[in-house]
Amino acid sequence: MTIEQIIYYCLACFVVVIVPGPTVTLIIANTLAFGTRAGILNVVGTQLGLILMIGLLAIGFQFISQQLDWFLVIIRYLGAIYLIWFGYKLFTSRSLVTEITNKKYSHKAFIIQGFLVIWSNPKAFLFLGAFIPQFLDFNQSTGIQIILLGLLFMFIGSIFDSAYAVVFGKFRNLVSSKYLTLLNRIGGGLLALLGFWLVIS
Question: How far apart are CA 140 and CA 1, in angstroms?
Answer without folding.
Answer: 10
